[in-house]
């Protein structure tokens, strides 16, 4: 069986209290060959790491961003060494950051290099079949902009077509954009798709548990 990555992107949601409750409600069934990765805000990483170890939960942690500057006088940034203490993965190039923070290819390439310096695994988001993807990326996440948060996912046929174009150069391609418990399997069963990146539907622990189960 192929390995699947089931990734939750909480975006800018949840306080520590909310995260604690989510951990109490999440359940894991049918997890064989599935890697569950939770990407919360920076503020929650320390707490979640502690809880995951204490409860021995099958969850890996990822950050939603990384500084391209490294250590030093860069107010408001979080660098690769700080993240490496807390998580294994980092999302780079999400369309929301490309749009809102005006992140461009050159900066994204710098972020991937920083992640690579310390061995953080990169989940790199692309929005179409011809985006630039830097070297050193572990997982390519195809997330068409008009599928994000709209309830209108891409068709599995098109997702497979796009995944195939990246598959020549990258081993792991996942799909993201309005994934839910009912449609997750239509993507994870595709030959060139190795998982899903889930935004809105990951916020509710029971729903996310069902997504893991149905994938
Ligand atoms: P969505 O978000 O599942 O809410 O569409 C996906 C994402 O932006 O990663």
Record the SSE blueprint.
Blueprint: E1 4-9, H1 16-25, E2 34-39, H2 42-55, E3 60-63, H3 80-84, E4 89-92, H4 95-100, H5 105-118, E5 121-126, E6 139-142, H6 156-167, E7 172-176, H7 184-188, E8 195-198, H8 205-214
Parallel strand pairs: 1-2, 1-8, 2-3, 3-4, 4-5, 5-6, 6-7, 7-8
The structure holds 2-phosphoglycolic acid.
Structure notes:
- This protein has 215 residues and is of the alpha/beta class.
- The protein contains 8 helices and 8 strands, in the order E-H-E-H-E-H-E-H-H-E-E-H-E-H-E-H.
- Strands 1-2-3-4-5-6-7-8 form an 8-stranded parallel beta barrel, surrounded by 4 helices.
- Strand 1 (4-9), helix 1 (16-25) and strand 2 form a beta-alpha-beta unit.
- It starts with a strand and ends with a helix.
- Residues 9, 143, 148-149, 176-179, 197-201 line the site of 2-phosphoglycolic acid (PGA).
Short descriptors:
215 residues, alpha/beta, eight-stranded parallel beta barrel, 35% helix, globular
Outline of this structure?
By secondary structure, the protein is of the alpha/beta class.
């Amino acid at each position: 069986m192929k390995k699947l990555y089931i990734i939750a992107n909480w975006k800018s949601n949840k306080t520590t209290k909310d995260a604690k409750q989510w951990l109490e409600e999440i359940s894991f069934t049918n997890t064989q060959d599935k890697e569950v990765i939770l990407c919360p805000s920076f503020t929650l990483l320390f707490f979640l790491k502690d809880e995951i170890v204490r409860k021995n939960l099958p969850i890996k942690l990822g950050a939603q961003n990384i500084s391209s500057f490294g250590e030093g006088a860069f107010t408001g940034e979080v660098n690769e060494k700080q993240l490496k203490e807390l998580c294994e993965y980092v999302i780079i190039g999400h369309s929301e950051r490309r749009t809102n923070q005006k992140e461009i290819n050159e900066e994204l390439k710098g972020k991937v290099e920083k992640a690579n310096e310390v061995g953080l695994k990169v989940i790199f988001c692309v929005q179409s079949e011809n985006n630039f993807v830097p070297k050193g990326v572990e997982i390519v996440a195809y997330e068409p902009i008009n599928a994000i948060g709209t309830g209108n996912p891409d068709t599995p046929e098109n997702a497979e077509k796009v995944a195939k174009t990246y598959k020549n150069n990258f081993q792991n391609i996942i799909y993201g954009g309005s994934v839910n418990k009912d449609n997750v399997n239509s993507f994870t069963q595709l030959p060139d798709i190795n998982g899903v990146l889930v935004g809105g539907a990951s916020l509710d622990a029971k729903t996310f548990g069902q997504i893991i189960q149905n994938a």
